[in-house]
Amino acid sequence: MLRAVIGAGHPFTLSGVLGFDRFGAAGGDLGSGVTRFLGVDHAEHVVAIHRTDAGLPLLQVDPAELSDEERAYLADVDRWRAAEGAYALLQRTKPQTLAYALSDSPIGLAAWIVEKFRAWSDCDGDVERRFTKDELLPNITIYHLTETIGSSFRLYHDAAQIPMGEHARRVEVPCGIALFPGDIATPPRSWAERTSEIVHWTVMPRGGHFAPYEEPELYAEDLRDFFRPYRGG
């Protein structure tokens, strides 16, 4: 996905596009994947990366090599996929069918989006503990007025085309991870260290999948702490 945009052979260099020769990168969810590939493919420009997750497990590992903590994590992910993962399978395999339905129904669109804010945030089932209607409704409205819920699904199809070997490539630049307890799944450090050079590991006291939205001060503080040693490039 990322490699097709700025990988080897592209007529523009990454530093030329961004205007900086050295920089850090940070992200979560899709941004976590993009950040990871920046660290893998452009280590000459990336001083360090920060992520709020290690991604759902795609790495193929011999079960005999797993620690008890890693086995428990993978079992937890399997339970999550069985209970919550149908949306991803539908968006990956039949995105356009779903897009017609959600573009036609504002109520359906609102339900599809708000359900994720409720399920993936640290709200204990009450979404308005974390997000006000004034925060939720503009998000829904933008998707509705621009009819872009369908295009937002495309990454699920495109990401599935990335060869499995790409997920096994190791990030050698320094990597920091901040885990929020209400997120989809929280891996042990040993799992993240299989594919990343982990030098900073923070377990947050609260927050969920939408960490910068839910806990902006905690998130910003961790970014500052992690990137401070790399400010000189």
Overview of the molecule:
52% of the residues lie in helices and 12% in strands. It has 233 residues and is an alpha/beta fold. The longest helix has 17 residues, at 68-84. It has helices spanning 2-6, 14-18, 30-41, 68-84, 86-93, 95-104, 106-120, 133-146, 149-159, 164-168, 189-192, 211-214, 216-227, and strands spanning 23-27, 46-51, 171-179, 196-203. The chain has 13 helices and four strands.
Helix content: 40-55%
Shape estimate? globular
Number of strands: 4
Could you give me the name of the CATH homologous superfamily of the largest domain? Alpha/Beta hydrolase fold, catalytic domain
Number of domains: 2
CATH architecture of the largest domain: 3-Layer(aba) Sandwich
The first-level CATH class of the largest domain is given as Alpha Beta
H-E string: HHEHEHHHHHHHEHEHH
- Return Rg in Å: 18 Å
**How large a portion of the residues is in β-strands, by DSSP E?**
5-15%
Q: So how many helices?
A: 13
* CATH topology label of the largest domain: Rossmann fold
Mean pLDDT: 89
- Weakly predicted, low-confidence segments: 1-12
From the N-terminal CA to the C-terminal CA, the straight-line distance is 27 Å
Strand order of the largest sheet: 1-2-3-4
- In this structure, how is the largest beta sheet organized? 4 strands, parallel
Structural classification:
alpha/beta
